Amino acid sequence: MRMWLCNPKILCRNHLLGEHNEIHKAVGNLNYSGIWTKSLIQKGFLEPQNFIKRHDELVKEMLKRGYKHNSPLEFNNNENLKGCVNREQSLKDLLSRCKGCKKRYAGVDL
């Protein structure tokens, strides 16, 4: 699980919907025990302080592509958890792993 934190326009369908789903899972885990999510924060894969903003960015792109969205995100970062994702490295990893994202990246005017 990872928040790519690159422009949602370049995400292929699987990564766009997958990241949206993973944010919901991370919030659900924090509401339960938080062990899994906190370990991912420490590894630099998540930024809980940006969950709401990122969720909204992903939803905007989903709606633009004609996908439906019926899962609002309710998250109150009571523990004031903070993480830091290396966005440059994340983009490099994404483009090296996914032909669909690489194709979108080449064709999207950012």
Task: Give the total of beta strands.
Answer: 0
Rounded average pLDDT: 93
Oligomer type: single chain
Radius of gyration: 14 Å
Structural class: mainly alpha
Shape: globular
Described by strand count, sense and barrel closure, the largest sheet is: none
- How much helical structure, as a percent, in the residues? 55-70%
Tally of helical runs: 5
The percentage of residues in β strands lies in: under 5%
User: N- to C-terminal separation?
Assistant: 25 Å
Q: Which stretches are low in confidence, meaning pLDDT under 50 for 5 or more residues running? A: none
Q: What order do the SSEs take from the amino end to the carboxyl end, as H and E? A: HHHHH
Give the domain tally. 1
Describe the structure.
With 110 residues, the chain is mainly alpha-helical. It has one domain (8-107). Helices cover 56% and strands 0% of the residues. It is built from 5 helices and no strands. It has helices spanning 13-32, 35-42, 51-64, 87-97, 99-107. The longest helix is centred in the first third of the chain and has 20 residues, at 13-32. The two termini are 25 Å apart. The mean pLDDT is 93.
Throw out a few tags for this protein.
globular, 5 helices, mainly alpha, 110 residues, 0% strand
SSE layout:
Layout: H1 13-32, H2 35-42, H3 51-64, H4 87-97, H5 99-107
